[in-house]
Amino acid sequence: MISNEVREQLQHIVRGAGLQRSTDRSSTIRSLLVGSFGADPTVKGQFESRAIVKERQNEFLKSYAVQSEIWLASLPSDSQYLTRGGESKVFMDLDNRNVIKVNDGVYYATWTEYLTSLVLHNLFFPNTAYSLVGFVEDGGNLNAVLRQPFIKGQQAKMEDIRAILTFNGFANTKRQDYFNKEFGLVLEDMHDENVISRQGVLFFIDTVFYVI
After folding, report:
1. What's the pLDDT score for residue 48?
2. In whole angstroms, what is the distance from residue 3 CA to residue 185 CA?
3. Nearest to 98 by CA among 149, 152, 151, 153
4. pLDDT attached to residue 85
5. 120 lies in the same domain as 54
6. 137, 171: one domain
């Protein structure tokens, strides 16, 4: 069940506002983007038309990262490489307790949408919260670099995923996509490879949120 504190934060997000009393880097940078570029709801039919906004945000984020000393010179070493998902390269962190995800935000029309998705993930699933390490250029494209706890376990059962999302107000709309009517949130691609089960607890390790 969504707590009153999380509910209050969600209301700020869906209104396109910055989060109050939040000091994590994802929220801070999202607030900067909202202040400079706005936070329009996602309209997938406008994906291509928003490309110019994302290009402007690329330059904004590069400049911010350099000034804030979170611009990374390179990717983690090849020896740390684990796999690649739909939008992320995944590396094992040097501490062997976290993974490093290098994400190009390709699923999102703007970096504001991407940062909003990260903030939503951290509100709903704090046991697999992302920490934004910084930004890096890979193949000529801007990428966000994230740290996330490394979870060992088995792929979750689809019925268990559906049950916990339904309990938290998300209705299954088609295949592995869900919608929360109260907040106007879409949660996509919730298949078993994106959720780990360990000792009866589900860990959501990859989510794609949109505010519509």
Report:
1. 85
2. 17
3. 149
4. 82
5. yes
6. no
Q: For residues 17 and 77, what is the distance between their CA atoms, to the nearest angstrom?
A: 37
pLDDT means over runs of 10, the chain (212 residues)? 90 84 88 92 82 96 98 97 91 98 95 96 97 96 98 97 97 97 96 96 97 92
Beta-bridge partners for 148:
99
pLDDT of 21 reads 67
For residues 33 and 108, state if they share a domain.
yes
Q: Which residue's entry shows tokens 């907040």?
A: 183
Domain limits for position 82: 4-149
Residues 141, 159 within the same domain: no
The model's pTM is 0.95
43 and 103 in a single domain? The answer is yes
Structure tokens at 120: 């939503």
Mark which of 125, 149, 173 sits at the end of a domain: 149
**What tokens appear for 82 in the block?**
């684990």
Distance from first CA to last CA of the chain, Å, rounded? Answer: 22
Q: What would the two tokens of residue 142 be? A: 């801007």
**Around Cβ 3, how many Cβ atoms within 10 Å?**
9
Strand order in the sheet with 195-198: 154-155, 195-198, 201-204
